[in-house]
Specification:
- The protein has about 130 residues and is of the alpha+beta class.
- It has one domain.
- It contains 4 helices and 5 strands, in the order αααβαββββ.
- The strands form 2 sheets. It has a 3-stranded antiparallel β-sheet with strand order 2-3-4. Strands 1-5 form a two-stranded antiparallel ribbon.
- β3 and β4 form a beta hairpin.
- The protein is elongated, with a radius of gyration of 19 Å.
Length: about 130
């Protein structure tokens, strides 16, 4: 079990934690109350700290840029020039070179069902 946030994130380069709402609302009521108390404590601790108004969250798979099919390249905003060199265009329009073995995110449908106004519930496997 991880003892702190850095350990929980492991060796990933992730800067944010994304948790599907459907999974959260599927947990027992007492667990949800503890979780929301911690979120409120976090919000209170950083009240006034500048944060983005909203974030874009998209389900995706990691794949090597050089192994992508044309439709996957388009979805991942990867282009290939006439010499086979790959580049990536960010959502902000910045273009960077991309190595063929570099892992890129290819959007996929989210396997977790939509929260449906709080009505969707899944059965947790570890409770």
């Amino acid at each position: 079990m991880a003892s702190d946030i850095h350990t929980y994130f492991g060796l990933s380069y992730a800067t944010h934690l994304v948790v599907p709402r459907t999974l959260l609302q599927s947990m027992p009521r007492q667990w949800q109350e503890r979780f929301t108390e911690l979120l409120t404590e976090l919000d209170d601790a950083f009240d006034g700290t500048p944060r983005a108004e909203a974030y874009i969250v998209q389900a995706a798979e990691e794949k090597e840029a050089g192994a992508l099919a044309a439709v996957e390249r388009r979805a991942a905003r990867i282009t290939k020039d006439e010499h086979g060199a790959l580049s990536h265009t960010t959502l902000l329009g910045e273009v960077t070179e991309t190595a063929g073995d570099e892992l890129v995110l290819v959007p996929v449908p989210d396997p977790v069902p939509h929260y449906n106004r709080g009505r969707t519930r899944l059965q947790p496997s570890a409770i």
